[in-house]
Write a structure and sequence with these properties.
It is a single chain. By secondary structure, the chain is mostly beta strands. The protein has a domain of 99 residues: Hcp1-like (Pnp Oxidase, Chain A, Roll), CATH 2.30.110. 9% of the residues lie in helices and 46% in strands. The chain contains 1 helix and 9 strands; from the N terminus they run ββββββαβββ. It has a 7-stranded antiparallel β-sheet, with helices on one face. Strands 4-5 form a two-stranded antiparallel sheet. A hairpin with a 2-residue loop joins β1 and β2. The chain is elongated and about 65 Å long. InterPro entries: CHP02241, Phage_T4_Gp19. Pfam families: Phage_T4_gp19. This is Phage tail protein.
């Protein structure tokens, strides 16, 4: 069990979207938030510029993993469902260690698929085939997750 003082290395990420388990991913990029600032200059005061927070901006999240049977069964079907009557859902990402311990969890609001990129099929360069799922979201949910 991890203690508060131990540093854990996350090696895989478990993803749930709309209560659908999309499986494990080996890379997760883009988790973050940016505070957008508005600058105001005060007349007669040349020493500084006021900075006011206006909104929060969330980058898209890119999830990558080796191609598997889960690719067609889960990812592609979820993305294709966006074409017909799709509504924004919730998402949940768990960062886990090699032995399966959860390091951190991230609950996301209003998740929608942006892009799915399948493997590059090229017989000249044999390597692990990977897929990437890019999702957009509108912020982090409350910490009380049901997963």
């Amino acid at each position: 069990m991890l203690t508060d003082t131990e540093i854990a290395v996350g090696v895989h990420y478990l993803v749930h979207l709309d209560e659908q388990d999309l499986g494990d991913f080996s890379s997760c990029e883009g988790l973050g938030v940016e505070v957008v600032l508005e600058s105001r200059e005060e007349g007669g005061n040349n020493g500084f510029v006021w900075q006011f927070p206006t909104r929060l901006k969330y980058p898209n999240i890119k999830l990558t993993r080796p191609v598997s049977k889960q690719s067609a069964d889960k990812i592609v079907n979820w993305v294709l469902a966006a074409v017909s009557g799709f509504s924004r859902g919730t998402g949940h990402i768990e960062a886990k260690t090699a032995d399966g311990q959860t390091v951190a969890t991230y609950d996301l609001n209003d998740v929608i698929p942006v892009r799915w990129t399948g493997p590059s099929l090229n017989a000249d360069s044999p390597k692990v085939l990977t897929e990437t799922l890019e999702i957009a979201h509108n912020g982090f949910a409350n910490t009380g997750s049901k997963y």
